[in-house]
């Protein structure tokens, strides 16, 4: 009996010796986390661990949770051991203004394509600026209106209307059909004849292209994004398994999303489009690729090749093109979906009626193309339409979440000392719901943008659907 007691005591001592240093380390680390930003308002759990906010992220409430914390505590709140969220214009200018020096965090690397960085994922300000110079020209408003891009969009609008007439069941699935429209419009702009899709086309012709976006509809896509963001090594390990190990992982249900995962069709399509462009005769490249994105990347590839061995690689060009497509499909279709939904609500019927009145009153026969579709130039004079679109982007921003940045040196933001390496962020969701700027911010009211000029000017300062500074959305036009 005594031997058993001594054995138990020895075991407990051994366990204590093992656990005590671990508990001491955890306690020290937690205390350090608490103290390093203890001058920033925050509930204790958020200061102690990143997993409190990660839990909200998993449940799909991260952005709303941060907004609620701002409402309860302060315009400046701590949302992680080394992460701060801001919600005032003064902070916006400091963090995101041109020349601020703040760089994107490793969070964005989950958007690399083929393991290759692109305009969206570059952390370095210099690398981003260099790549952006290559792409600014075809995205400029003057080029879009003059070089055929606007005419192509008008054609896609007509094809979308024909789809609704031809396949009413697809039209009723507005989320899906708007994705077809966005896919066809953007591939036309990116690739032209070298990779345009026909998702809006007749059955049979459109089947392959419609399947390209089927994984967008998979609800597990968000689950995979969560794992890639919060457990990148674990996710990478699981997704890279092959053979027997892969079968075991799948059998145990450990994969966030079954392989192949998100956007495989779009990523494959980007490589195929670049391959088709690359194989085309030089004269055809120069003639038909002058104003599309893949043509601009090819020009850079050839000019850089004279100075630097290789220029842009095949994967760099395909990664860039695929990223623009990935970025454009969801944002375009989601914005249109929310606009249509908001106008369809009974309480918003007056806005729909006024929009119809404006179109009937201001658009002349000369403002329509041969198919009866309003031209891009003509829509520029529809002020009420612009207000409806702005209000949709304000209340239902397609990318409403935080946009994280960091600086390798200590700095001061909005009067608060921020240690080097701290992640700082702001979100359109919170900026667009400031009741001091937007009266009744949760109310869909396009006419707020047609009111007093001073009020409208102030709202425009807070309008952040396209971000701002050097990193603002290149596709704003």
From TrEMBL:
Heme binds at residue 473. The keyword Protein biosynthesis does not apply. GO terms for molecular function: heme binding; iron ion binding; monooxygenase activity; oxidoreductase activity, acting on paired donors, with incorporation or reduction of molecular oxygen. Keywords: Heme, Iron, Membrane, Metal-binding, Transmembrane, Transmembrane helix. The chain crosses the membrane at residues 12-31. PANTHER family: CYTOCHROME P450 (PTHR24305), P450, PUTATIVE (EUROFUNG)-RELATED (PTHR24305:SF164). This is Putative cytochrome P450.
């Amino acid at each position: 009996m005594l031997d058993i007691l001594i054995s138990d005591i020895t075991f407990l001592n051994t366990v204590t010796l093992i656990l005590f240093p671990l508990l001491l380390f955890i306690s020290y680390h937690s205390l350090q986390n608490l103290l390093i930003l203890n001058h920033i308002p925050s509930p204790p759990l958020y200061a102690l661990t990143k997993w409190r906010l990660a839990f909200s992220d998993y449940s799909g409430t991260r952005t709303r949770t941060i907004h609620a914390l701002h409402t309860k505590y302060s315009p400046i709140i701590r949302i992680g051991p080394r992460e701060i969220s801001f919600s005032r214009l003064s902070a916006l200018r400091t963090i995101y203004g041109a020349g601020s020096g703040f760089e994107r965090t490793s969070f964005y690397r989950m958007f690399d394509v083929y393991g290759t960085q692109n305009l969206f994922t570059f952390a370095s300000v210099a690398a981003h600026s260099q790549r952006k110079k290559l792409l600014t020209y075809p995205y400029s408003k003057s080029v879009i209106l003059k070089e055929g891009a606007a005419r192509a969009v008008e054609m896609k609008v007509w094809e979308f209307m024909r789809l609704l007439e031809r396949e009413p069941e697809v039209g009723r699935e507005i989320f899906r059909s708007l994705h077809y429209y966005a896919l066809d419009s953007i591939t036309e702009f990116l690739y032209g004849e070298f990779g345009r899709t026909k998702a809006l086309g007749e059955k049979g012709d459109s089947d392959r292209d419609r399947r390209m976006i089927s994984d967008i509809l998979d609800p597990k896509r968000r689950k995979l994004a969560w794992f890639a963001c919060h457990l990148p090594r674990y996710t990478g390990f699981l997704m890279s398994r092959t053979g027997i190990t892969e079968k075991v992982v799948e059998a145990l249900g450990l994969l966030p999303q079954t392989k192949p995962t998100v956007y495989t069709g779009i990523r494959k399509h980007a490589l195929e489009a670049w391959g088709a462009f690359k194989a085309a005769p030089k004269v055809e490249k120069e003639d038909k690729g002058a104003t599309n994105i893949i043509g601009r990347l090819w020009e850079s590839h050839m000019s850089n090749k004279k100075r630097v061995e290789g220029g842009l690689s095949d994967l760099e060009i395909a990664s860039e093109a695929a990223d623009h497509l990935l970025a454009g499909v969801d944002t375009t279709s989601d914005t249109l979906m929310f606009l249509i939904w908001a106008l369809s609500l009974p309480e918003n019927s007056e806005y729909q009626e006024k929009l119809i009145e404006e179109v009937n009153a201001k658009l002349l026969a000369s403002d329509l193309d041969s198919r009866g579709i309003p031209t891009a130039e003509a829509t520029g004079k529809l002020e009420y339409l612009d207000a409806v679109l702005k209000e949709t982007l304000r209340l239902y921003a397609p990318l409403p979440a935080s946009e994280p940045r960091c600086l390798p040196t200590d700095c001061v933001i909005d009067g608060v000392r921020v240690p080097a390496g701290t992640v700082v962020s702001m979100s359109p969701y919170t900026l667009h719901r400031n009741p001091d700027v937007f009266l009744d911010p949760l109310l869909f009211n396009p006419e707020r943008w047609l009111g007093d000029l001073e009020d409208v000017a102030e709202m425009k300062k807070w309008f952040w659907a396209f971000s701002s500074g050097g990193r603002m959305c290149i596709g704003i036009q």
